[in-house]
């Protein structure tokens, strides 16, 4: 059965290019296009598409307002088409909070050639979205009040630097899954190191959003930085994050080396480094995501003595990465999203201190 796609964009050029590159792909049928949300609404009723590609910024009704209505009244898989700008990043993260499955970015110049260069990625994301789980928006879309300002945590907390390290990887659906997990972490949690597939220009907005919603201090890692409890670290845009051992401590290693599994940052890169640097002191988790990045790295963590878990299929937007880890035998446990933070803390506390300085 072909995936039926409706392309919604105010640019005639983008509508044409997206339609043509999607229609070339066996297994995808472009059933229509719409220049604004009002036309899109009528075409959704008439054409019943499986997936919508939706421009973030449009006339008459902006993409976010339309998306919020759609996810409340007729939830369906949506892939956002975003501009690579600071505002584009912020709006896209809001769209993912409202229930969009994934997003692709369009360049500011040379849109036709730029989209063509991303053809394989766009096709993969549309096909992945067709298999995604989409739920009706029940509550005002994660419009959380910013957390109160926090002081940096004293290092004499319950966890010493070498006690435990939590490593998390995610892709499609992960921006919200990670936010949900970090919201439930206490301010003195063991250090968390994360990799989320996200365009370089979006990483800072993502880190700032996580920091607003987490009791931990969330930051972009800098090369050589000490890994501290109560802190969560993500790589800066378009860089890998690795963890290295420095005596009884860990440090961040940030670099722009070649993509792995077509990704930079890649989850496998982070997990493999954690397996070597932290071994049984670490806990590993893969959340929702497309593809299989992280599965082999999680296996290496497990073989190094780290407990491992993945998000379950029922609560994952896309069960690609977690499913790949399960098939490989890399996951000790399969956990629903609302229990992951608690489980990570249990595993991190299980032998807190027993391997310190190992």
UniProtKB/TrEMBL annotation:
Gene Ontology biological process terms, A to Z: chemotaxis
Keyword Iron-sulfur attributed: no
All copies of domain Response regulatory, residue ranges: 4-121
EC number: 3.1.1.61, 3.5.1.44
Residues modified to 4-aspartylphosphate: 55
Pfam families: CheB_methylest, Response_reg
Location(s), subcellular: Cytoplasm
Domain observations: Contains a C-terminal catalytic domain, and an N-terminal region which modulates catalytic activity.
NCBIfam families on file: PRK00742.1, PRK12555.1
Primary localization class, coarse: cytoplasm
Secretion signal, residue range per the UniProt entry: none
Function: Involved in chemotaxis. Part of a chemotaxis signal transduction system that modulates chemotaxis in response to various stimuli. Catalyzes the demethylation of specific methylglutamate residues introduced into the chemoreceptors (methyl-accepting chemotaxis proteins or MCP) by CheR. Also mediates the irreversible deamidation of specific glutamine residues to glutamic acid.
Protein name: Protein-glutamate methylesterase/protein-glutamine glutaminase
Family matches, as InterPro entries: CheB-like, CheB_C, CheY-like_superfamily, Sig_transdc_resp-reg_Me-estase, Sig_transdc_resp-reg_receiver
Gene name per UniProt: cheB
């Amino acid at each position: 059965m072909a995936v039926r796609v409706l392309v919604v964009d105010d640019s005639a050029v983008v509508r044409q290019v997206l339609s043509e590159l999607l229609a070339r792909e066996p297994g995808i049928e472009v059933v229509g296009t719409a220049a604004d949300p009002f036309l899109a609404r009528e075409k959704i009723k008439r054409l019943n598409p499986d997936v919508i590609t939706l421009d973030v910024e449009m006339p008459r009704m902006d993409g976010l307002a339309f998306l919020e209505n759609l996810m409340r009244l007729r939830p369906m898989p949506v892939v956002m088409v975003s501009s690579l700008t600071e505002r584009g990043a912020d709006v896209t993260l809001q769209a993912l909070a409202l229930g969009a499955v994934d997003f692709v970015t369009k360049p500011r110049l040379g849109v036709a050639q730029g989209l063509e260069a991303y053809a394989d990625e766009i096709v993969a994301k549309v096909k992945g979205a067709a298999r995604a789980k989409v739920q009706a928006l029940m509550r005002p879309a994660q419009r959380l009040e910013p957390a109160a300002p926090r002081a940096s945590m004293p290092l004499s907390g319950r966890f010493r630097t070498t006690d435990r390290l939590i490593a998390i990887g995610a892709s499609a659906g992960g921006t919200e899954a990670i936010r949900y997990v970090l919201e439930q972490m206490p301010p003195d949690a063991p250090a968390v190191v994360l990799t989320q597939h996200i365009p370089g220009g979006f990483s800072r907005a993502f880190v700032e959003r996580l920091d607003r919603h987490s009791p931990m201090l969330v930051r972009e890692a800098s090369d050589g930085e000490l890994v501290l409890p109560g802190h969560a670290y993500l790589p800066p845009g378009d860089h890998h994050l690795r963890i290295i051992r420095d005596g009884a401590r860990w440090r961040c290693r940030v670099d722009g080396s070649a993509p792995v599994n077509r990704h930079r940052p890649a989850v496998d890169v982070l997990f493999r480094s954690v397996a070597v640097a932290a071994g049984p002191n670490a806990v590993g988790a893969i959340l929702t995501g497309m593809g299989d990045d992280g599965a082999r790295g999680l296996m290496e963590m497990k073989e190094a003595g780290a407990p491992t878990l993945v998000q379950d299929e029922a609560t994952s937007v896309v069960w690609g990465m977690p499913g790949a880890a399960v098939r490989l035998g890399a996951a000790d446990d399969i956990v629903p999203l609302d229990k992951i933070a608690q489980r990570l803390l249990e595993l991190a506390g299980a032998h807190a201190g027993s391997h310190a300085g190992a």
